[in-house]
Amino acid sequence: MRIDAYITEHARKTPHQIALEEGKKSISYRCLNEDINTVATSLAGFEHCKFAILAESGMQYIKILMAVYRSGNIAVPLPIEMQGRSLERILDAACINYIIATRKQYSRFGDGFFERFGTVIVVSDDTSVETISKRVVLERNNPELRLVLYTSGTTGTPKGVMLSDKNLISNARSITEILSISSKDKAALVISPHHAFGNSIINSHLMAGGSIHIGTMNFVDSVFSLIDSGVSIFYGVPSTYRILLKYPERFKKAFANVRTAASAGGAMDRAIVRSIRELSPNTQILPMYGQTEATARLSYLPAEDVDEFIDTIGKAIPGVTLEVFDPENRPVEPGITGELVARGDNILLGYLNDEAATEKRVIDGWLHTGDLAQKLQCGYIRLLGRKDDLIKVGDHRVNPREIEKEIEQGTNVSSVFVVPVSHELMGNAISLMVIPDQGTEVDKIFAFCRKNLPGYLYPREILLIDHLPLSENGKISNRSIIEEYQHVKASM
Questions:
Q1: Which of 255-259, 362-366, 369-373, 470-474 is the least confident region?
Q2: Which distant-in-sequence residues (6+ apart) come within 8 Å of 224 by Cβ?
Q3: Are 38 and 229 in contact (CB under 8 A)?
Q4: What is the spatial distance between Cα 410 and Cα 414, in angstroms, rounded to a whole number?
Q5: Do residues 429 and 393 lie in contact, with contact meaning Cβ atoms separated by under 8 Å?
Q6: How far apart are CA 60 and CA 231, in angstroms?
Q7: Domains in the chain: ranges and CATH
Q8: Would you call 359 exposed, middle or buried from its count of C-beta atoms within 10 A (0-12, 13-18, 19+)?
Q9: Residue 157's pLDDT is what?
Q10: What angle do CA 457, 460, 461 make, to 5 degrees?
Q11: Taking 60 as the threshold, does the pLDDT of residue 474 lie above it?
């Protein structure tokens, strides 16, 4: 069964139930189902082909996504916050021949961008469909593959996570059970639907026959108005809550009828929990943890234990088994540090066109998360950082090495070092330490970053240094970079 089949079922049983809202617009399950059929009809003649989706975060995106499913093809959503060059890297790595875009995105990227595709389909605001070009090429894809989600946050080519219908259904059912989602619930979708967290919100609420109010975090006024529209479950990453909590009176009013404040994409700290408790005491707080490779969620912290165990990720969601392994892939006892691993029906099929990465990440059916962790005596799990050097910026996972490489290749510098620095809203931001070359200009580095990096990677500052940030053993590591940064700042 596919996610779109639930929409058909709800269209039959509760045709007038509102499925999606966006601004002042709304659409019932019956009309949503009809629009999905309209778009899916344009995909006739393609058999299990990969379709890139280039669409803004709105109703049209969900219609197109479900239409690709319904036509029996494979959806490859493109993160539209990325620059065109980064999108082209994804398209090349994924060997994409077909694309379906909204009229807005087609106009934004221009004819030249779309010349690379054999088939180009454009969907207008009224859901009318225009086939700009059509050339069918035989593809041999994994027979279970339905969706390819790209991990967010780096400037290099992200990995394409291959997910099946079973992955999507399994994780949506687990989330629906944890949050007790019903047809009476309305979700707030203000984070990107192109990534795992946003995708899971869509799946779980459409499966339950509820409604989803779609917005963005671009304007705080519109977010509070969206919540005031009858939202019962609000979803956000920690930075989402930090932003909204800067307006305590408005938060208090808007969240008065929100029964659950769910989070993922980073750890909720005690300050956020305390503020939500003070302003909206009847709202239950439900932190979740997951990865794109797990379709979305792996664990959750039961609402009744949030105050005592907020520094943990809680326990596995239904259908998932979590363990902590030592380097020999053996379970360790509580209190011993190891790598968090997981298995279940939500674990990815593999990485698209990257068998080596798949074999490294999935071993004997266990997903190796790359997170260091310890089990507590109560069974909950506490994370202790990454095995690698990834940095969390808002809901993005950032590889500092790739940012450094991008800037070094695009500017006149000798070396660049990314430093994670605290940010009151995003949790982390980045600063740069630069060993200059002849002709290095700080303003030009800032200009390069503004043009070529996503906004959340724009550096807060650039410091010039004259030597490599080496550790005592002569190596460069995140720790040595941070220590050098602290030394430089202290001497200023």
A1: 470-474
A2: 244, 247, 250, 251, 253, 254
A3: no
A4: 11
A5: yes
A6: 21
A7: 3-375 (3.40.50.12780), 391-490 (3.30.300.30)
A8: exposed
A9: 55
A10: 125
A11: no
How far apart are the C-alpha atoms of 362 and 293, rounded to whole Å?
Answer: 10
CA distance 47 to 130: 19
**How far is the C-alpha of 191 from the C-alpha of 209, rounded, in Å?**
21
For the question of whether the overall pTM of this predicted structure is more than 0.85, the answer is: no
**One-letter-per-residue 3-state SS of 67-129:** HHHHCCCEEEECCCCCCHHHHHHHHHHHCCCEEEEEHHHHHHHCHHHHCCCCEEEEECCCCCE
- Give the pLDDT confidence of 308-333 residue by residue, as tens digits: 999 999 999 999 999 999 999 999 99
Interior angle at CA 429, CA 150 and CA 396, nearest 5: 15
Residue at 111: amino acid letter? D
Amino acid at 339: E
- As a whole number, the mean pLDDT across the chain is 93
Query: Is the CB of residue 280 less than 8 Å from the CB of residue 251?
Result: yes
- Can you say whether the dihedral through the CA atoms of 68, 295, 232, 279 is positive or negative? negative
For residues 439 and 117, give the distance between their C-alpha atoms in angstroms, rounded to a whole number. Answer: 41
**Beta-bridge partners for 320:** 344
Number of other residues whose CB lies within 10 A of the CB of residue 274: 13
Q: Enumerate long-range contacts of 469-477, CB under 8 Å, 24 or more apart.
A: 469/417, 469/433, 476/417, 477/389
Torsion of CA 298, 151, 368, 296, to 10 degrees: 10
Contact assessment for residue 348 and residue 167, using Cβ atoms and an 8 Å cutoff: yes
C-alpha–C-alpha distance, residues 106 and 124, integer Å = 10
The full length of the chain comes to 492
Beta partners for 211? 186
Residue 137, both tokens: 């090429």
Phi first, then psi: what are they for 329, rounded to 5°? Answer: 60, 40
